[in-house]
Amino acid sequence: MVKQTSGYPEPPQSTLDTRACSAASYQGLDTDPDAPLPSLSDRETQSPFSDLMTLPLPRNVKWFLTRLVPAISQKLPRVDRLLSTLCYAFIFLFVAFRTRITLIQIGSMKAATGLPILSGVIAFRVLVLSRHDLTRACVNPDGATTDIAMATPVPVRKIGSLKIWVVNAWVDTARLPVGRQKLHLNIYAGSRHAGHIRRFVTIRPQEDIAACLPDGIQDSDAFVPSPSDKTMGTIDHVLSLPVERHRPQRQIFSGAIRSILILRTDQLGDVSASLPAMARLRTLFPEARITVLSQKAIAPVLVASGVADEYLSLSLSYNSRTERRFLTAEAEHAVRDSLRGREFDLAIDLSPGTESQPLMLLCAARYRVSFKPGQFPFIDFGIEVTSRDKINRKAVVNHAAHVSMLVSALEGAMHMRQTVVPRLPSNSDASILGDHGVEKKGYIVVHSGARHPINRWPLPNFLAFCADFQAVARIPILLFIDKDDLTDAIKAQCEGLDGVKLMPSIDMNAFDTLLSHTLLLVANDTGPKHLAATRGVNVVSIAIPRVNWQEWGQNRGGVILSRRVPCAGCGLNDRHACGMDAACVVSVPVATVLEAALEEIAYGKGDTRSD
């Protein structure tokens, strides 16, 4: 008689005793208490060549300075100073008779070939290394002598007798003919022609760009339309445009997703492992019409799974020598025909490889999603998944889970508002509020500081805002000012503001308490606004578009104020390197910030908006 058992049989016991392996005793092969921390070290104090890294030098020269010379210096510290002197002498000789210019930016859009596509008002930004005192920069179309834009070079740094200059020229491309052409930028030191740079570009009417990229035109601070008043200067036009008022993003898509193309052009195992991800997409977008593109032989499996409304197929041949699958000329023609003229709101390639992503370019898609976003600039959203076995360092996440992680990440991007993390009740809260003469939700906080000066709305604007807000709202204001800005004159000015309390330096617990119980925070694009938003407080943030407002605007609650400028996305931390003296943030009017703050106060006395 056979004894019946329930459940699964016990797995065989390993011959290796791992019972002694615990978190307390685990070491691993990589553990090294003396491991170097290069990304956390002060590189400037370690290398005498850090000043040279910002210079517009050829790649091979930078490689020599960043790789070979530091290696020699480390091995032979006695020659370090000599090498430094020789390198500076070399750089001086390198530019002694010629100004060196490096392109930073020319517009924000690019064709698949890398050729800049210019439309509306664009930024032509360069870095210049010169021993001359530069006075102006002019932008000209090819074959023309008329300047269509001018800018003043701004000195950024000085190394010996050499100076680094930045030029940020704003160009109205409506003054240029449509089509491919060369654009020139000439640098002058007084009447002397000091340098020149030219680039091929393609000019497209802004109406075409608006038709091709309606979401980008609507949401991006980097697109600036050309002026309708041709008598107005380009800079004056840009700074006269209304400040944008953004609500924190709810999801990555700006509109409904009604049509989806799913690609999985691999073999049966790959497609089978992707079926759960396809089913999840069906659940996430129940109203969308879904089309799947797969190999012809596998289509019956997909049809039987009910993951799509339409099934397209392609035929891949196999090369046994290269062990790769490929499209024959006939098969390529067929797949191009099947996708030509098709339009989808979303195209998503579920392959973690790098072969099939370009197929998404054969049709129009508002959003393209895939793995390997770093290798394919046309991908709007993507992830990379890496997992490693402890012994052979190969992947351990199974393929079905790997593929589904892309869909899970996309689902997360569709629900970007994170939950409020309130401050835990504390007996000290009441005393902290009482010490500063305020009650819960009975005051606002204004924070004028930021780590990077480029992020700061001017302090006089904050003081003017406090005066105007107090005159209208009669709500107490707790004003925080960085100690570096707190001069005797500023202190005296604050003392003359009714209803405004200039806050002393307080510890982080007290600061968190005051932020958590305020009615509203008005601040720069800096840490306090993120803490306040996480605590559920509405925020009016004055954002500088050096990074996109979508990425670094507060996650929830309130409004993000930013200005459209053609150099948006510059990523600069140094205000001197801007070339426009951070006009994008310093030009935000006090009246705009006041209006936004009063609107937030009026709406539910600080309750988080539903929009």
TrEMBL record:
Disordered: annotated segments: 26-47
InterPro entries associated with the record: Glyco_trans_9, LPS_LOS_Heptosyltrfase
Record's keyword annotation contains Transferase: yes
Signal sequence range: none
GO biological process, one term: lipopolysaccharide core region biosynthetic process
Name of protein: Glycosyltransferase family 9 protein
Top-rank lineage group of the source organism: Bacteria
Gene Ontology CC terms: cytosol
Residues spanning the membrane: 82-99
GO MF entries: ADP-heptose-lipopolysaccharide heptosyltransferase activity
Keywords: Glycosyltransferase, Membrane, Transferase, Transmembrane, Transmembrane helix
Pfam families the UniProt entry points to: Glyco_transf_9
